Amino acid sequence: MTDSRADSQQVLADEILADAGRQADRARRKAERDAKAILRDGRQQAEADRRKRLDAARAEADRRRRLTLAAVPVEEERLRARRIEEALEGIRDEARARLEARDGFDYREVLVRLAAEAVAGMDGTMFVLELSAADREAFGADLPRAVVQQVRRQGLQIALSADPATIEWGVVVRDAEGRQSWDNTLAARIRRLWPEARRVVAEATGLLEPTTTDDEQGQTNADECTRPEEL
After folding, report:
1. N or C: which end of the chain has fewer CB within 10 A?
2. Measuring CA to CA, which residue among 197, 142, 130 is closest to residue 168?
3. What would the pLDDT profile of 177-194 be if each residue is shown by its tens digit?
């Protein structure tokens, strides 16, 4: 009886061990399958991430390339504009030097015209001319009379200022009461005329393409601004 019970217990133990072995084997196989699936999914995710990063890097590189290419004509235009401006400044400086040297024109006539222009542009009949010490010495004696003759305003009276002006070239005109003043010195004329004159000079020298305009008179006036006798 004892042997039979022992045999039954052994059989039960063997079955339990066998079942445990089968469950362990199934668990092992499942773990292996899960591990392979995890590894496969990991590789796929890693590949997807790699492709995503690569695509992003390519897109960024392409964006930077387009930006660089787009910046090229802008930089070229900036450099071209700077070269044009440098050339125009050189032309302006050369023109100013020739004007200061009174090269190729009657300086006395220019003074008369500058003063007459200022007087004609202001109200009143009594005006004072301010000249540099050198111009006062050379032209002051008859300049007021010449301006009166050119303006031809009824009752016009023009005199020289009591003292020389601190200017080098040109004339400053003010009314006797000091309410109006017109600066027609070289520096002031260039400052007023240069914005328009620089365009005319740039087109005339080929630095810029001529602009199309219906205002032919305006173009003529701009051209006249650069003549020495007008300065």
Report:
1. N
2. 130
3. 888 899 988 888 888 888
196: its two tokens: 């328009």
| Lookup: tokens for 208 | 């810029």
Beta bridge mates, 129: 160, 173
Write the pLDDT tens digit of every residue in 197-218: 777 777 777 766 766 554 544 4
The helix/strand/coil state of 181 is strand
To which residue do tokens 């070289």 refer?
Answer: 186
Distance, in Å, from the CA atom of 42 to the CA atom of 228, rounded to the nearest integer, reads: 84
User: CA-CA-CA-CA torsion for 134, 138, 142, 143, nearest 10 degrees?
Assistant: -40
168, β-bridge pairs: none
Neighbours of 142 (CB within 10 A): 11
Q: Residue 128 pairs with which residues in a beta bridge?
A: 159, 174
- Phi and psi angles of residue 84, each rounded to the nearest 5 degrees, phi first: -60, -45
Q: Which residues of 197-226 are buried (b: 16+ CB within 10 A; e: fewer)?
A: bbbbbbeeeebbeeeeeeeeeebeebeebb
Place of tokens 């387009």: 66
Is the CB of residue 144 less than 8 Å from the CB of residue 160? yes
